[in-house]
Amino acid sequence: MEELNGTIDPSCLQEPPLAADVINQLDVFGIILYSVLTVMSVVSLVLYLEECVYVYRKVPSPKKTTIIWVNGAAPVIASMSCLGMWIPRATMFTDMTSNSYFAIVVYKFLILILQELGGDEAVLKNSGNKTLNISTGPCCCCCPCLPRVRVTRRIIFLLKLGSLQYALLKPILSIFSIILWANGNFDLSDLEITGAAIWINPFIGVLTIISLWPVAIMFMNMCTSLRSQRIIPKYAMYQLVLVLSQLQSAIISILSLDGTIACSPPFSSIARGSMLSQQLMIVEMFIVTLVTRLLYRRTYEPIDLNPCDADNGQITKMIPISVSTEENTA
């Protein structure tokens, strides 16, 4: 635009538009698009609430609480994305809410794996002298020389702590970022060394990588044992939400910052990139919600820990116990 007439549309340099401005500029296609995306986010939330009722009634404690937390990732992100789509100036708040919730989900997924194994005490009781392979992503996938570690109470505590730090620090840093933003000191487009964003965001990235490592360790060592509990597709959905909510959003943000995503009044480049990210997220999280519903809304069979079935350093072999299937008719 600058090359065509030597000027830049003033709206391309302004803050994101108000919700009323977004509604007023919608054409027929825009109205249909926004309506369909809103319905998707509402359906995701309704399906999640219905699933919460089912899990609360059919799954014993404390696993049901963990499942409810883990299942909420996609519906919460979809709901926050819908709010950010309709109210562009609230995008920072909705994104930080989604990311803070997912930080808790990372820790809860680790707890879910342990609960599927019967809990900490059951893992310690049946581990014997078995060891864990810690040469996994995202930290040490290229370090096969790392020694295996014995399964002890201390190791389990450190794994939990590695994921818990992100669940605690991410919301704190989000609140701190919002405070700085309100004071005019936090701007995602400010990449100067004196800007707050250039320091806070990489630090959050490091915390994210550290928190994902314990989950990857537990999954890589237990995926065979927990195959009957559908842990592999569950982990795949968890990873998919991670990639879509973190990596995809970061890529779109970078493209909007360098102007690859063009300004489209009343949206600036950054606001338009954020809008596109929100719309994509709603569709993607809607699909993830449907898939996770199939994985988690089911009868959970108890498992027996058989310490005699150790295979190549695996802690244990999980053997489902036949139980009554009367819950399947509920």
From TrEMBL:
<feature type="transmembrane region" description="Helical">
    <location>
        <begin position="68"/>
        <end position="87"/>
    </location>
</feature>
<feature type="transmembrane region" description="Helical">
    <location>
        <begin position="276"/>
        <end position="296"/>
    </location>
</feature>
<feature type="transmembrane region" description="Helical">
    <location>
        <begin position="157"/>
        <end position="182"/>
    </location>
</feature>
<keyword id="KW-0472">Membrane</keyword>
<keyword id="KW-0812">Transmembrane</keyword>
<dbReference type="GO" id="GO:0016020">
    <property type="term" value="C:membrane"/>
</dbReference>
<dbReference type="Pfam" id="PF03619">
    <property type="entry name" value="Solute_trans_a"/>
</dbReference>
<feature type="transmembrane region" description="Helical">
    <location>
        <begin position="31"/>
        <end position="56"/>
    </location>
</feature>
<feature type="transmembrane region" description="Helical">
    <location>
        <begin position="235"/>
        <end position="256"/>
    </location>
</feature>
<feature type="transmembrane region" description="Helical">
    <location>
        <begin position="202"/>
        <end position="223"/>
    </location>
</feature>
<keyword id="KW-1133">Transmembrane helix</keyword>
<protein>
    <recommendedName>
        <fullName>Organic solute transporter subunit alpha</fullName>
    </recommendedName>
</protein>
<dbReference type="InterPro" id="IPR005178">
    <property type="entry name" value="Ostalpha/TMEM184C"/>
</dbReference>
